[in-house]
Amino acid sequence: MQYLLILMILLLSGCGLSKMPQHMAQATLNQTDPETVAEAAPAYLLLFDSLIESAPDDVGYLRDAAGLYALFGDLMVKDVDRAKLLSERSFTYANRAICQADKKLCQLSQLPFDPFVEKMGSFAELDPALRLVYLQSWLVYLKHHADDWNELARLPQLESLIGYLLHHEGGDKSPQLHLYLAILQTLRPAMYGGKPEEGRRHFEQAMQLAPDDLTIKVAFARFYARALYKQELHDRLLHEVLAANPRKPGLTLLNTLAQREARELLASGPDHF
After folding, report:
1. Which of 63, 66, 254, 271 has the fewest CB atoms below 10 angstroms from its CB?
2. What is the pLDDT of residues 156-185, one digit of tens each?
């Protein structure tokens, strides 16, 4: 989630301000007012676009642009069509980033299952930050293209890739990987290939590894409890989110957004259940 980093500050790092990027990233993640971030973000999205225009093969620019587009489009944009477009831009940049990092990974997401599996070892050798951004970007893209069966048909590839990282690359201690896999396993009903109970276990593991991250409980409620009509679990998770202190280092902004979503889910609960 550190990719809310504002790269404009990076341009100043050669002027003796090398610590400012980290400070700006931390200040953003510790922001208690999401509207402040939302109002500033479009300018930085355009800045990323211009940086990539000037250096189209720069993996760092592509990676960070993919991360910011994914986060902004998924967490701060309510318009469905606009969020879809932003997710597409994010995933385009993410695919370009891994292709520049390793030519064997070009068009990775478009490969059939067996050739895809053959590339997973190469993907695991990428920089961990790039790997997480790519997975996040793909997941956000799928979330906003859930009506496209051609895209949903690639869920097994993404699920296998995350599972590979969890079991073969020491990722079992990564709450992000557990969260991503949990969401994937609960996106579809069991009759269509979903694995809701496995997803529940990964949600629980993610919560154990990152107890201060309220976004995990909200995702657990949205993707598992709602899908299986478990209202008691749904309401308990969301009330726990609302009762928690959102101010945690590096998580304040995301926790504040999670509490906002928790209120919306509780309000719509009677109609859903």
Report:
1. 271
2. 999 999 999 998 866 678 899 999 999 999
Which value, in Å, is the radius of gyration of the alpha carbons in the chain? 18
Contact between 56 and 25 (Cβ < 8 Å)? no
| Alpha carbon distances (Å) from 217 to 94, 108, 178, 182, 203 | 27, 31, 13, 12, 8
Place of tokens 């790039």: 130
Can you tell me the distance from the alpha carbon of 117 to that of 136, in angstroms, rounded to the nearest whole number? 19
| For residue 1, pLDDT beyond 60 | no
- d(Cα 225, Cα 227) in Å, to the nearest integer? 6
DSSP type of residue 239: H
Q: What is the average per-residue pLDDT within 67-77?
A: 82
How much is the mean pLDDT over the chain? 86
Evaluate if pTM is beyond 0.90: no
**167 CA to centre of own chain:** 20
Instruction: Using alpha carbons, select from 183, 269, 219, 179 the residue that is nearest to residue 75.
Output: 219
Ramachandran bin of 148, using left for φ above 0, alpha for ψ from -120 to 50, beta for the remaining angles: beta
CA distance 260 to 238: 10
Specify the higher pLDDT residue, 237 or 46.
237
Helix or strand or coil: residue 67?
helix
Q: How many residues does the chain have?
A: 273
Evaluate whether 159 touches 181 at the Cβ level (below 8 Å): yes
Query: From the CB of residue 199, how many other CB atoms can be counted at a distance below 10 Å?
Result: 24
User: How large is the average pLDDT for residues 247-268?
Assistant: 92
Distance (Å, whole) CA 14 – CA 231: 54
